[in-house]
Amino acid sequence: MPSQESDRIASAQQTLDILYEMSQLLNTHLDKETLTTCVRMIESGINPEALAAVIQELRRENAALVGRA
Amino acid sequence: MSSSTSLIPALESLVYSLVPASRNDEPLKNELVAHCQEILTSRIGQSHEPDIGHLADSVKRQLLQSTPSGTTALKFTNLLSRLLDQHVLSKKHASIQFLQSLASSRLLSSSSVPFLPSLAPPPPTRPSPSPSSLEQSSTLLQPSRKSKAEQLSEYREQSGRPHLPEYLLLRDTLYLLQGISGKYIRLSSQNDSNQLEFVDNTKYIISAPTKALIHRLSEVGYLYSRVDAFVREREGSSGVGMIEQSLCHHLQTKLTEYYRLIAVLESQMPSVNVSGGGSATDLRDRETSLTLRRLDVWINEWRLRMRMMSVCVEGARESQGGALVNLIHSYTDNGDPFIRKFTDQLLEEVSKPFFSTLHKWLFSGELYDPFNEFFVAMDPGLAHVQYMHPSSLTGNINQLAGDSFVSPDQDDPRDRRGGLTIWQAKYKFEQNMLPMFVGEAFGRKILSTGKSLNFIRYSCHDSDWVVTREKMSNTGGSLKYSDIAGLERSIDAAYSTASQRLFDVFIEKFRLLNHLSALKNYMMLGHGDFADQLINALGPSLSRPANTLYRHNLTATLETAIRSSNAQNDPPDVLRRLDARMLEYSHGEIGWDVFTLEYKVDPPIDTVIHPDAMVKYLKLFNHLWQMKRIEGALSRGWMRVAGGARSTFLRLPDLEPSWHKMRIIMAEMIHFVKQLQAYCQLEVIECSWKVLVEFLNKREGDLDAMNDAHRTYLDRLVKKILLLSPKAGREENVMNQVKDLFVTILQFQDAMENFYNFCLTESTRRDQRLDFDRGLYTGPQDPNSSLEENLPRLLQPVDDYGSQFSEKVQTLVAALQTHPDLDCRFLGVRLNFSEYYRGKQQKEKEKERAETATPK
């Protein structure tokens, strides 16, 4: 049913908005797109703390790259 | 990993977005993705807590730390609740945890989650000033970064006696707090002294101050184990009172709070860092997480609480019920607001069963107290005695009129316990069970109220009223410890309604006043016409020996006396209770000695007019009946003396002086009896009656007060009518004198009767002689009956009894003059009117004096 589908999308959107707001509150510096990816990964069963470590690692890597550049 | 294939695109996108440089650099991207996968498959963060509440708490705490105003925390709460409403995500807590761990990694300065923020000491960032000798001797790489404490501990480690690491002690202490022996510190269970035992360890030592600290801490653990043991023991055993049960419940709640604290403290334990000190995280831990000293501070309040609980527990072992409430209440008078608050709370809980019992007792008169905790105790022997008022079944007393009474000697002794016994002994007051906050006066009132209700319900069979009132009272809110003023108000209200109702029931439904006045009228001869009729009808048969009297004759005569006097207008319910019977007689007694009237009452009136009172009424009747008898005899005699002897048919002028003398003596006797009667009827009975009726019309107080009023009334009657003096052993002295006087009067009457008869024969003889002189034959002469011979023999006793009487009255008057009772003394004054006897005494004394004076 399309209406149900649209409901689902809307509520998913809302959930994402809430999470985004939270992430802003917590000062995580994640943009909306990355957050969406992360949430999707967590939903698929990835350990959240490990994922956080990944994000940090990547950030560090990026900083190193930028510093080198 | 099965999800690895689906993972890679996601990871790639992450890498792209976070490391923009990798977009153009394929090997870098691959390397990063591989690295990421490695991290993900590693064991980082395996130990996550699935509890979203806890997670939220820690996030909030974190937020509070960054912005102490709390707005962000509030906002977060708001967001969280909205998130929880959404159904799209299945792993909300994981998402939040992700965010949190990301956030906490960014807050580098205060990244740990301090539970005890206020306790965080300033970070020891100060570098040690100058290297000491100790420092130099050590082999540390960065001596300048070490604090002195660290240096000391390292020194100890090197010298072979390192201190036991604090986290180990801490863990053990937390065990101790729960009453469990730890690894290094044990609770010694030997010889009951509950000592702490530090396990000797050659590798480590525990310093003395630490030991002292642990001792302090373990006190709480010891108290906890006692309280816990008590609660468990009571849970298991049966027959535990309700107050105790509620105490246990309260203690259990407190213990749960304590468990919570322990759990929180445990979560604050520094993570066991096997790698040794020196790292940054260890330092951070030490700054913010639990130490023994912090534990002491945290546990401090609980130490006090545990002490209170343990005291209560100790008290509960010895006392029970109300006494236990009392014990707890004695701690509320404390200057320490903490203790006061704690005990108030405790009391509020603990007194709940007490108040529910009180409520039941106060408003429905039912004692529901399966564990004997209430301050009203029921006598188990009387518990089943709830006598049935037969009329209550039909609802009409008059229908019973035809039924016969069960005669007292057929009564089962157990049933003989009247309403008074039930009223007085069924419920007892237990002083030591009375909670102090109620107060004894109120306790008595409560007892009386409940008793009244119970009595109304079971003895008066008026349960409808009680039930209605109970319903009404339920709207008035419940009784609570915290509302003592309201409690007192409701007690007062309940007391007055119950007493009022009891009075109403007694006076209107059971016609107490009618019965009392019937007792006054019949037993105390208040109905003069009835008494006259009875004495006239019974008089002849009562002079016969007691064994010739039959009860049916007596009752028939009684019936006649009732019919022929005003008494017939009394309600039939009163008349049917009136009965005539004989007391137990011994040989030689005549009817006058054994006859008695009886008035029968049945429950619940017998609570007021109880058997003991009945005995007193019988005593009074006896005395008054004797008085009446004397009065009757005297009036008959007076008719002889005044009418017959005066010249109608006795024409013996030479005996006129003797008759005159007799009339004087008789007048004295009549005066005596009349005064006595007037005193009894007017001054004693009527006055006391007035007081009693006034009291009953006032309708104040409870059944006890009513009983007391009746008892004082009756006691006063007995004391004054029987002229009892309070002197021990001589109570009945005066009474015996009066009885003696009665006997003298009767003897005098007999003597006078003989003399009268003699006079009649003498008069006939003289008539005969006159007739003979005139020449008429009137029969054979009686030569023996000569006047000169018989006169002294007949006059002597009359004279003797007359003077005896006079003397006896004189002594009686003397005795009455010193009688402690004012009314009795006044009777003496009336008997001795115009100081007749005193004058006589003085005259005699003067005569004696003259006699002694003349020979000289």
UniProtKB/TrEMBL annotation, chain A:
<dbReference type="InterPro" id="IPR022214">
    <property type="entry name" value="MZT1"/>
</dbReference>
<dbReference type="GO" id="GO:0090307">
    <property type="term" value="P:mitotic spindle assembly"/>
</dbReference>
<comment type="function">
    <text>Required for gamma-tubulin complex recruitment to the microtubule organizing center (MTOC).</text>
</comment>
<dbReference type="GO" id="GO:0005819">
    <property type="term" value="C:spindle"/>
</dbReference>
<dbReference type="GO" id="GO:0031021">
    <property type="term" value="C:interphase microtubule organizing center"/>
</dbReference>
<protein>
    <recommendedName>
        <fullName>Mitotic-spindle organizing protein 1</fullName>
    </recommendedName>
</protein>
<dbReference type="GO" id="GO:0000931">
    <property type="term" value="C:gamma-tubulin ring complex"/>
</dbReference>
<comment type="similarity">
    <text>Belongs to the MOZART1 family.</text>
</comment>
<dbReference type="GO" id="GO:0051415">
    <property type="term" value="P:microtubule nucleation by interphase microtubule organizing center"/>
</dbReference>
<keyword id="KW-0963">Cytoplasm</keyword>
<keyword id="KW-0206">Cytoskeleton</keyword>
<dbReference type="GO" id="GO:0044732">
    <property type="term" value="C:mitotic spindle pole body"/>
</dbReference>
<dbReference type="Pfam" id="PF12554">
    <property type="entry name" value="MOZART1"/>
</dbReference>
<dbReference type="GO" id="GO:0033566">
    <property type="term" value="P:gamma-tubulin complex localization"/>
</dbReference>
Automatic annotation (TrEMBL), chain B:
<dbReference type="GO" id="GO:0043015">
    <property type="term" value="F:gamma-tubulin binding"/>
</dbReference>
<feature type="region of interest" description="Disordered">
    <location>
        <begin position="118"/>
        <end position="158"/>
    </location>
</feature>
<feature type="compositionally biased region" description="Low complexity">
    <location>
        <begin position="131"/>
        <end position="144"/>
    </location>
</feature>
<dbReference type="GO" id="GO:0000922">
    <property type="term" value="C:spindle pole"/>
</dbReference>
<feature type="compositionally biased region" description="Pro residues">
    <location>
        <begin position="119"/>
        <end position="130"/>
    </location>
</feature>
<feature type="domain" description="Gamma tubulin complex component protein N-terminal">
    <location>
        <begin position="170"/>
        <end position="509"/>
    </location>
</feature>
<feature type="domain" description="Gamma tubulin complex component C-terminal">
    <location>
        <begin position="512"/>
        <end position="837"/>
    </location>
</feature>
<comment type="similarity">
    <text>Belongs to the TUBGCP family.</text>
</comment>
<feature type="compositionally biased region" description="Basic and acidic residues">
    <location>
        <begin position="147"/>
        <end position="158"/>
    </location>
</feature>
<dbReference type="InterPro" id="IPR040457">
    <property type="entry name" value="GCP_C"/>
</dbReference>
<keyword id="KW-0493">Microtubule</keyword>
<dbReference type="InterPro" id="IPR007259">
    <property type="entry name" value="GCP"/>
</dbReference>
<keyword id="KW-0963">Cytoplasm</keyword>
<dbReference type="GO" id="GO:0031122">
    <property type="term" value="P:cytoplasmic microtubule organization"/>
</dbReference>
<dbReference type="Pfam" id="PF04130">
    <property type="entry name" value="GCP_C_terminal"/>
</dbReference>
<protein>
    <submittedName>
        <fullName>Gamma-tubulin complex, component 3</fullName>
    </submittedName>
</protein>
<dbReference type="GO" id="GO:0000930">
    <property type="term" value="C:gamma-tubulin complex"/>
</dbReference>
<dbReference type="InterPro" id="IPR041470">
    <property type="entry name" value="GCP_N"/>
</dbReference>
<dbReference type="GO" id="GO:0051011">
    <property type="term" value="F:microtubule minus-end binding"/>
</dbReference>
<dbReference type="InterPro" id="IPR042241">
    <property type="entry name" value="GCP_C_sf"/>
</dbReference>
<dbReference type="GO" id="GO:0044732">
    <property type="term" value="C:mitotic spindle pole body"/>
</dbReference>
<dbReference type="GO" id="GO:0051225">
    <property type="term" value="P:spindle assembly"/>
</dbReference>
